[in-house]
Amino acid sequence: MDHFEYRDGVLHAEDVALSAIAERFGTPCYVYSAATIRRHYRVFDEALAGIDHDICYAVKANGNLGVLGLLADLGSGFDIVSVGELERVITAGGDPARVVFSGVGKRVDEIERALEVGIACFNVESEAELERIDAVAQRMGVRAPISLRVNPDVDAQTHPYIATGLKENKFGVDITRAETLYARAAGMEGLAIRGVDCHIGSQLTQLAPFRDAVERVLALIDRLADQGIAIQHLDVGGGLGIRYRDEQPPSPAAYAENIRDLVAGRDLKLVFEPGRVLVGNAGVLLTRVEVLKPGAEDADKHFAIVDAAMNDLLRPALYDGWHAIVPVAEASDTVSRTWEIVGPICETGDFLGHDRDLALQTGDLLAVRTAGAYGFAMASSYNARPRPAEVMVDGDAVHEVRARETVADLMRGEQRLPFA
Ligand code: LLP
C-alpha cells in the first residue's frame, strides 16, 4: 500500500499532483510520501506486537533528514554503518541510545564517536574488530556494548550482490567460531556482551531463510548460555523484500509469525533493521522526457532519453533492478510503443528501464516507482550531474527536504593549481 494514486488522470503523491512538484522543484526529483512511511512503520511495528522488540531503521536505505526525523518521531531506532549516518541520525533528532552500528570496517574515530554519544550496540564483524573496540573503549574508560554478527550460512535466495549470509560473503563471523570469540570477548575489559546479530541479505521474498537463520542463532544463544554467557537481544537484521514488479514478498505479519514460535517464552529482545520495507514504495523519482530517438531500422529499439540517469538511480544499472515507469499524466489518445528509457550518461548501462510500453512525447513527465529505498542514497554526481532535489509530501503540504545540488556544490573544496 502506498499513497501514489491517479486523480483525474494525474499521478498524485497524497494530495499533491506530481506535475505541480515538477513545476516547482524541477526534474529529476525524488518525491516521498510521509503517510506511506508512517503506514509502513506502524504495520511493521504492529506485526511484532507481543514480541519484545526494537525497530532500528537501516539508515543506508534513505538517510534524508526529513525521512530520519519522521521515523524518529514515530519512535524508531536506527541501524547505522558509518559516523556520517550517526551524525545524520543525531541531527534528525534520533536517540543515540537506540542506535546499532553495523559494518565490516569501523574506523577508530567512528568507534570513539559512537562511544561518546552512547550507542546501544556495536554489531562486530571480526575478531580484529573486537580487539579494536576493546582497546578504544578501555582507553576511554568505558565498556562498549557489543553483539557479534554471525554468519549462519543460509542462502537468502536473492541477487548475489545483496546476499550476505553465505560462508563466502565478507560479512560476519562463521557461526562455528562464534563461541570461541564470545569467550574471548567475555574476558575483554572494554566490552560488555549484549547480543547476537545476523543479517542474511536484502530484498528477500521467502520466509524459510529467515527462519533457518533465527533457528541457528537461537541454538548458538543456548550454547552460549551453557558457557555462562547471557545474551539479552537477538538482532535479526533487515532484508524483508518488497514488490517492484511481480514479486510476492511476505507481509510484515507473515514475517513476524514465521519466527514468533521460535522466540516465544524466551527472555530475549528482538532487534530488527528494516530499510527497504519501510521506505521503498514511499518514494518515486520524477523525470522528464528530453529527447525521443528512433534506433537503427533493423535494431527495432527506440530510445526515450530522460533527464534522470544512473547517477540518480543506480539500481537498474547495478542489479538489473526493475522499477515501474509510469506517465504522470495518463495519456488518452496517443498510441504507445516500446521504449528503452535511458539517461544522458555516456554508458550503455545507463538505463532506467528496458522495453517499456508507453505513449510518449517530448516534455512528458514520468515517475519511476518504488525509488524510496537505495535511490537517492546511492546517487552520485557522475558526469558532473548535480544530485536531484528531494521533496516530502505530507497530505497537501510539500516540503523540500533536500535542495537540488548545484554545479558550484560539485566543485566545492576543489582548486585549480596555480602552475607557473
Ligand atoms: N542491516 C544490515 C546489516 C544491512 O546490511 C542492510 C542492508 C540492512 C539492515 C537493511 O536491509 P533492507 O531491509 O533494506 O533489505 N543497494 C541494494 C541493497 C543493499 C542492502 C545492503 N544492506 C539495493 O538497492 O537493492
Which structural traits does this protein have?
Lyase, Ornithine Decarboxylase, Chain A, domain 1; binds ligand LLP; 9-stranded mixed beta sheet; 8-stranded parallel barrel; 420 residues; TIM Barrel; alpha/beta; 2 domains
Short description:
By secondary structure, the protein is an alpha/beta fold. Helices cover 28% and strands 25% of the residues.
Please explain how this structure is put together:
With 420 residues, this protein is of the alpha/beta class. The chain has 2 domains: 4-31 and 280-411, Lyase, Ornithine Decarboxylase, Chain A, domain 1; 103-272, Alpha-Beta Barrel (TIM Barrel), CATH 3.20.20.10. It has 12 helices and 21 strands. The strands form 3 sheets. Strands 4, 14, 15, 16, 17, 18, 19, 20 and 21 form a 9-stranded mixed sheet that branches. An 8-stranded parallel beta barrel has the order 5-6-7-8-9-11-12-13, surrounded by 4 helices. Strands 1-2-3 form a 3-stranded antiparallel sheet. The longest helix is centred in the middle third of the chain and has 19 residues, at 208-226. It is globular. The N and C termini lie far apart (62 Å).
